[in-house]
Amino acid sequence: MRKYAMFAVPAVLAGSMLAWGVAQANEGDVLYVRSAMQQEVNAATNDLWDIGNNAMSDSGGIDPAQMDDAKWAKLENAAAALKLEAEKMAAAGTIKAAAPGQEKVEEPGAYSMEDVQSYIDADPQSFRDLASGLARHAQAISDAAKARDAENAGLLVGEIDQVCEACHAKYWYPQG
Known about the structure:
The chain is 72% helix and 3% strand. The protein has six helices and two strands.
């Protein structure tokens, strides 16, 4: 009898842990867009713009003479961070406009969180596709930074606003 009990307890514990792990995985599969944007995405994008704006050439690109290894590394790291967050958005199983308790928070000129949620719910695949596009764009910036390609990096950093705006116009801000 004791032998069975020794095997039964670990089996029950393993089953419980497996069920708990699945619940945790499902819980972790929720993307709270507003939080992700305000924290990780904005930080990475601001770092990209900081480098691009402070090393700007007369033609509006990045001036390689104003770049050093630390700036190239910062550009590459910011692009990698942006890519990671965009990939998380693209892969999220459940997309929520705002975290619990933040659904009523509103910003002047922006859709309500309820409206944003309704737009996401109406076309979540487009949201994921736009996030994938952001991830590809961020990878291109990272590649240009690794190659120390100032012209291409400058163009890509300059285009990031358009990439972001494509999603914002559809899901976040009223078109007028």
